[in-house]
Write a structure and sequence with these properties.
The chain is about 75% helix and about 0% strand.
Length: about 190
């Protein structure tokens, strides 16, 4: 039975949304086509009518997850001045809610180490998203020449990612909170 274009587009969206969440929660290698189709409420046939392979869905789902993260950054950056925006970004990033919801959170923190072991087809969209995030963060950094702001953005993003990854990894709740609080207070955000 043929599906309409609208239904095919909806199936594709459901697969990508489910895959993006599952990859962030379980990792790329820890998520199979079975789990994706089950989470999307679709069959293997629906999956393979949209994607030639798991690798194809990984690249697109990763792109979607990174777009969601970028949109969240944009939303925080639009409010008030640059200094306040940067503080809002750090404060929103290093929170208990973000730590406890990897499936809805930053794909860089959830998948960065795993993406490093993937083929270029997967690493390329990840790299592009990192570059876009660094550009946006550098726009929020104060003064200085553009290369210095970009370097500050690299330090800021690296610190946020590292802090979130460590906070998620430790089993001690008080240590986890302390990691996030300490990193947030020591990042190069000049308005603190």
């Amino acid at each position: 039975m043929r599906v309409s274009r609208e239904q095919a587009a909806d199936n594709r969206r459901r697969i990508l949304t489910a895959a993006a969440r599952l990859f962030r929660e379980r990792g790329i290698d820890g998520t199979g086509v079975d789990a994706i189709t089950e989470a999307a409420g679709l069959t293997h046939g629906a999956f393979y009518s949209q994607f030639a392979s798991k690798e194809a869905v990984v690249a697109e789902a990763l792109r979607l997850a990174m777009e969601e993260s970028h949109d969240a950054l944009e939303s925080l950056a639009k409010k008030n001045g640059r200094r306040e925006a940067l503080t809002r970004v750090v404060d929103a990033y290093l929170t208990r809610n973000h730590r406890d919801a990897p499936g809805q959170g930053c794909a860089m923190a959830a998948l960065g180490a795993e993406v490093a072991r993937q083929r270029k087809a997967i690493r390329a969209p990840f790299t592009k998203a990192v570059e876009e995030t660094l550009e946006k963060l550098s726009e929020l950094c104060d003064g200085k020449a553009a290369p210095d702001r970009y370097d500050e953005a690299i330090a800021l993003l690296s610190g946020m990612l590292g802090g979130l990854i460590l906070a998620r990894a430790v089993s001690d709740e008080s240590l986890s909170r302390r990691i996030m609080r300490t990193v947030a207070n020591r990042l190069p955000v000049t308005s603190r």
